[in-house]
Amino acid sequence: MIESLLVANRGEIARRIIRTAKRLGVRAIAVHSEADADLPFVVEADESVCVGPANPAQSYRNTEAILAAAKSTGAQAIHPGYGFLSENADFARTVEASGLVWVGPGADAISAMGDKINARNLMAAAGVPVAPGTTEPAADLAAAITAAAEIGYPVMVKAAAGGGGMGMGVAVDEAALCTEYDKVRAFAERMFGDGSVLIERYFPRVRHVEVQILGLADGRVVALGERECSVQRRNQKLVEESPSPAVSPELRSRLLAAAVRAGEAVGYRNAGTVECLLDPGTGEFFFLEMNTRLQVEHPVTELVYGLDLVEEQLRVAAGLAPTFDPDALTPRGHAIELRVNAEDPKRFLPGPGVIKTWVEPTGEGVRVDSGYVEGNTVTPFYDSLMAKVIVSAPSRAEAIERARAAVAGFALAGPKNNLPFFAELLDNPEFVSGDYDTALITRMR
């Protein structure tokens, strides 16, 4: 097993990785910005290094500072968490070239899946279903108009680079396409340094379902079930559950097999997620993208399968076998995750501030992965995620009941927060029935 691990991230995910590292006897090293110096992940690490000011470009994305921290602390490995440098192939290569262990997929796999168009083409060649769309970037607006006419409106205009639901727009006709194309291209150039644009068929009623995969040290790729991620605002997930209430055993078999093929096509190692769009009317699913990292919503898979995905990541990176038998995976029960953000519950706009009250819910089947404690300040420099409330139970109905109790039992004051939205959602007839799609929040608002 790896003996020392530097966590190149912050907040709840850094704290969560550190927790597993310490359980395994691995020395946990945190890096932090000046703004995060008093957060729990820094306090709980065995050692910590300040890598710069609040601006992520000068701290959490500062590759030179992070590598210098790894060297000065004698770290053996680097875990990137999610976001920041987690899907930066150049950083992964640099880490390995420096003689450190990269806890994630190989740089080539990150590169292959980092461009949505290249990823689509690779998946199509591997026999993974893809939605109708362009096989190369729409070089200009004229090319986009031609592609949209061939695909048929409505279309999704997407940044080929980037991920996490960023850089997307829907065009219902040519006039809208002209607006969305320029908007998405400008956003992509600004955020990702790559203005390449993909045109793809847009499905008005669709579910977002993803499969957790794990590429093992021996070369095998296994699928650890699916997660339903259709409760979204602005293409950003707020709630995830496993298993998906929309997936039948027959569909699950096809979905998981396709995800394994996707991983095998790029020689995938470590944890990753194959994201798909599911047409609930036909049962057809289409490859959306592959996230070459640990997902925010990984705890629901952990609770259903009874394992620790961070531990499995560390074992793969160390060349060790998994803790489970890949041929005898048995999911049990149901799990739901709620992302508690510092944002108002109506318009979902950020509302940072000092945490005056913070009392996490407890009880059977309740887990809270948090990045803050009472007295901390949620700053405007980073993502608004404060905590994840994850519940598990033998059935979906029981999981919803536990989620309701957990939301009611979370005492939080200071920053704005979306707990009132979750109370509303958990009583929403569509959500409770399990028959919902990605437009659910739009209908609720």
Automatic annotation (TrEMBL):
Residues 1-445 form the Biotin carboxylation domain. Keywords: ATP-binding, Biotin, Ligase, Nucleotide-binding. Pfam families: Biotin_carb_C (PF02785), Biotin_carb_N (PF00289), CPSase_L_D2 (PF02786). The keyword Ion transport does not apply. It comes from the Bacteria. Its EC number is 6.3.4.14. This is biotin carboxylase. It comes from Micromonospora radicis. The lineage of its organism: Bacteria, Bacillati, Actinomycetota, Actinomycetes, Micromonosporales.
